[in-house]
Structures are given as structure tokens and as C-alpha cells.
């Protein structure tokens, strides 16, 4: 029986699957008695008798199928998978497809379980992103082995393995534009491997060149693996008086269900071409080495990531830096969490979304109490990132410009032909914090016009608050409840949201 794709409706009834010939035994005898042609009507006319015989056979087949469908829906029909047959893979290795589906089918003991396994196997193969179509057919096993079935997996590989994208993106809060392009080569060696390269050039802020590869399976390692090499350059002169360059490699070690583990090794350089940076920024200029292991747990049961109306989500990220035996290796522990909850109201698709998030960064090692945290690893807040959609920690507080939140220091000005240094009150460096807390509430609703509702355009009312504080260099000793409460900043507003297939546009 042909299994549908992930986007097609799930079949409720099998067509070609015949798990047990005994399912028809009682039906055949009853049909032969109840649907026997009338002997009194026109024995000498051959044509009416032929038509009557054909109609009786069709009715018998219909009764047989209806009986089989009733049995499959009400009883547990035992079946055992005899063989899994793979077709259509000219380039892809049989071992890759078998590793995704064989274990699923071997565990099935009933026809119902076999149908569910076929649906899961279809989704798994589609997620490899190397096939144009996947069809799974369930057929009867060999006649000498009653109660068995053969599974036929037929795939159609992508005709053009090379794809590319090109786009121009804007970040209004940072007043910057970026041109981004990428190329992707699929299944080069037949192991489901995907090779990609990307280039991003941003006017006035960031540029990046990277290349990577991902493997769904690697030898005995059953988890997908990813590797990526990147060269990143970011310009934060407008906000924090420094430029960052980083050359690194990242390895995805585990990605299973809700869990992800990755390792990152990068050599980072901070420079100040303006020679105007504040004291905190100036003393961290130079080179440092990041060698860190990151673990992420993600649980998202919301009905939509773009406009949640019910459900909840939780994300926890733990990063440990300093796993490389080098004096320039940064040693720190960074912990973040993010909690979201959506409550439906039952009218105009109205829903209340609220959430809290937090994060803490602290050095470890010799003299860690007196050591400052690295500027690049601190928490920064601000910008126009929606807190409803993002699950990336305590970074979003609407109503504040990019990095325009939290501790800041005045920049210095060095006058020509003078050794004196003065400070420019109009220039500030935002230096981030080690303890970050945010919370928000957002009430969304459909607009009264039908044309807007059909387009998904809706309104919302929101309120946000957040706090960013310093903990390192013994600053935690001076932190009190009163100071923490006074450090919170809040914003409130309303607006209209226009969703698209690629992003969510918000005017608030």
C-alpha cells in the first residue's frame, strides 16, 4: 500500500496490504450463498447472465474489503515484516536508508503498528533533504510464510543536487543592510552528506564566510554530525567601540530529540580603530581563545512559533568555556533559560503570551572572584526582536535600541598634541552584564476586517521589562534587592503584525 508524504492526508485504510488470507474465509462462503445469480431469469440469455456474474463478483469484492477494513479498525491483526526492499536509490547508499527505516519495521507486530511505522519512516527519509519523493508500499509476504509482509521503499533522488539562495536583509534597529548568499551540495558521496558554503556582507556591521558539512549517520555513530569552519567580522564601533574578528570551527556532537551538544573552538581578536573606547573595552583589546562545550535542552509544545495561541515552551542552555590547556583560553560558565506560555481566550483568536528568561555568566579558575568576564560573552539587550517568537535567552526588550540597555561607560577623547585625556559625554559604550533578567506579556487578537484576518494580519498589545547587572570583580557583593529592583527598565505599546512565509514584520 502506498504511504503518503508528510504533507498528504494520512491514509486510514490500506489498499494492497493483505496481512492474513483467513480474514476473507467466512466472507466468501456467505457471499456465495447470498449473491448467487437467479437461476429462473433467462437461462438461455448469456449476456444478462454474464453481467449478473460480473456484478456479483464486484459486490463480493466490496464486501470482502469492507470486512477487512472493519477488522483492521477493531482488531489487532498480527503481522511480521519478512523483508525491506529499497528501490530508486542510484546514488544513495542502501545502508543509509536501512539505518533510518529497518529498525522501525522490524519492531512492528501488527498491521496497525506497521502503518504507523511507515508514516514515521516517510518523515525520517524526507528530513534527510536528499529525496524529491518517498513512497512506501506494504505488500503480502511469500505464500509459504503466511502472516508476513514485505515493505517496499521507493525513493526519487533530487535531480539537481546543487541549490543556492541570495537575498538582501535589513536590521532597522542597527541601521544596517546585509547581502547574503549560500550554495548547498546534497548527497555528494551518497551518505546523505550536505555540503554548504555561505557568504554574508553587511554594510556597517558584520560579514561572514563559512563552510560546513552535515552527516545524518557516521559509521557506528547513530547521531547526526555537523562541522563548520567560519571567519566572522563584526563592527560594534557605534555601540561599544570595538571590532571583533573570529576564526573558528564548531562541531555538532549530538542532536537527538530535545537535546543538542556542540563544541566550539575559535580564535577571537578585539580591536579599536577609533581609539576612543572606554576603560572596560580598552583593557580587553587583543586576542583570546574560546574552547567551549554547549548543551541545549529545548521543549516546545506551542501550536505555532510565529503566533502562538496555546501551549508552552522551555529552553535551557549551558556553556562551559576553558576546555583547552592555554593561558589565553577563557574560563567561564554561562547558563540561560527561557520559559513561554500561551493561553487562548476563545474569541478572535485572542491569546495571552507571557514569558520569563534569565541568564548568568561567571568566570572560574584561579582568582575568578577578581577576574572580569569576557566582553564578547556577556549579555546584551535591546533591539526589535520579538520576545514572543524568540527562544534565545534574555536579549529582547522592545522599545530600546540595539545594545541600548544596561551598564554603559563614557568613551574617551584624546586631543591632538596633548597627552591629556578627556571624556566625551555624548558617546557611551554599552558593556553588557553578567546577570540578565527579562519578562513580557503580549495580548494578540484578530482585527475586525475579514481581508486582514484572511491574510493573518493581527494586532497586539505588549509590556516588557528587563534588568542587566554586573557580577564579576566582586561586584556581586554590592548587589542588593534594592539595586536589582532599581535596575529594571520597562516599555509598553501596541501595534500590528504582518506575517509572511519568511519572517514576521511588526510595526509597534
Total domain units: 2
CATH topology of the largest domain: Porin
Our count of helices gives 8
**In CATH's first tier, which class of the largest domain applies?**
Mainly Beta
User: How would a crystallographer describe the biggest sheet?
Assistant: 15 strands, antiparallel
Mean pLDDT: 81
SS strand fraction: 35-45%
Q: What letter string, H or E per element, gives the SSE order?
A: HHEHHEEEEEEEHEEHEEEEEEEHEHEE
CA-atom Rg in angstroms: 32 Å
The number of E-state strands comes to: 20
- Percent of residues in helices comes to 10-25%
Main sheet strand line-up: 4-5-6-7-8-9-10-11-12-13-14-17-18-19-20
Low-confidence stretches: 1-45
| Cα end-to-end separation | 52 Å
Query: Based on helices, strands and strand pairing, what is the structural class?
Result: alpha+beta
The name of the CATH architecture of the largest domain is: Beta Barrel
The coarse overall form would be globular
Region (Disordered): 1-59
Biased composition (Basic and acidic residues): 1-13
Family: Belongs to the SAM50/omp85 family.
Subcellular location: Mitochondrion outer membrane; Plastid, Chloroplast outer membrane
